[in-house]
Write a structure and sequence with these properties.
mainly alpha; about 10% strand; Rossmann fold; SAM-dependent_MTases_sf; 4 helices; globular
Length: about 100
């Protein structure tokens, strides 16, 4: 994966980390506003960061590797200025 934009000057934290700009472009070009998306392989959390950057998209996801899950939380909290919240179940968020 080629690194460009803001990610070019940063050390890669995940072996398949994508540039936020690339995923932001994808959201803007192919996804409607207020879209709800599920990313089953969050990796470094780029899809969540890009969705928040575009404004009206929500991403839910999971990551099996705890070290990457910790990385996702750190990246998101650093970029958003918010604090991540642990939920009890998907049903509690989606209203099932």
């Amino acid at each position: 994966m080629l690194k460009q934009g803001e990610a070019a000057n940063q050390k890669r934290m995940h072996p398949n980390e994508k540039p936020v700009e690339m995923i932001t472009w994808f959201w803007d070009k192919y996804c409607e506003d207020k879209l709800l998306c599920f990313d089953p392989f969050l990796g470094s959390g780029t899809s969540i960061i890009a969705a928040e950057k575009t404004g009206d998209r929500t991403v839910y996801g999971c990551e099996l590797m705890t070290e990457y899950a910790d990385l996702i939380l750190q990246r998101w909290e650093l970029r958003s200025g918010a604090k991540a919240e642990l939920i009890e179940s998907v049903e509690s968020v989606l209203g099932f």
